[in-house]
Amino acid sequence: MRSEGRHSGTRTALRLTAALLLAAVIAPPNAHAYIDPVSGSAILQALAAGVLAGIFMLKSSWHRVKDGVRNLWQRLSR
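The chain above was modelled as a monomer; its predicted structure follows.
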């Protein structure tokens, strides 16, 4: 049985965001559809939330990346 990690919710959110962005990129360009202002606003808010979530995820894990590079550098310099 796999134990749930501390960041499993973050991974799920990242995968969902990536899937939604991929779907938006591969959608047909000429839909000729009307998007009412409320739907457009909701889409923009979702995109902004995804971008901000990515920024905060990088910010929160930055210390682990920095510590890993520092440990590697110390091992190589010995």
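The mean pLDDT is 84.
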